[in-house]
């Protein structure tokens, strides 16, 4: 199993960060993704909630994230399919700080092919770091909106 963690800080509140994270339409503004759409809305009153499936793409690479944890202003978890890995689980945790919010983005996965964990870790770590820092930057830039 490969584990990756990235952290970032924003002066925005956790509720503002959550509003961005929980809205799939904002994803291209803060992540390395070119686009994101809601492939399957969640059952219940919140279409972005537990069970929602987001279709995301970057160039010709397409992936699907299924929301597995939806705890507003605190935790957002998901599983991912579309990469050559198995059992991919991601978790974004938001923690209030005296001057804003700490974002911790962690993932764990098992390489699909034995011996490829080190090859997969670097690009996924770069991607996750880009997501965490991009989310923090976007939250800071839009906090007054």
From TrEMBL:
InterPro entries: Polyketide_cyclase/dehydratase, START-like_dom_sf. Pfam families: Polyketide_cyc2. CDD domains: PYR_PYL_RCAR_like. This is Polyketide cyclase/dehydrase/lipid transport protein. The lineage of its organism: Bacteria, Bacillati, Actinomycetota, Actinomycetes, Glycomycetales.
């Amino acid at each position: 199993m490969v584990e990756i963690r990235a952290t970032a800080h924003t002066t925005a509140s956790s509720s503002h960060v959550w509003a961005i994270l929980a809205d799939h339409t904002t994803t291209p503004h803060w992540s390395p993704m070119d686009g994101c759409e809601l492939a399957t809305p969640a059952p219940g009153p919140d279409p972005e909630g537990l069970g929602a499936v987001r279709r995301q793409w970057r160039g010709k690479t397409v992936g699907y994230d299924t929301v597995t944890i939806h705890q507003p202003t605190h935790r957002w978890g998901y599983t991912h399919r579309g990469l050559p890995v198995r059992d991919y689980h991601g978790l974004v945790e938001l923690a209030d700080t005296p001057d804003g919010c700490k974002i911790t983005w962690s993932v764990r996965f098992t390489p699909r092919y034995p011996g490829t964990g080190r090859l997969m870790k670097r690009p996924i770590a770069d991607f996750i770091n880009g997501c965490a820092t991009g989310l923090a930057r976007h939250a800071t830039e839009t906090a007054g909106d």
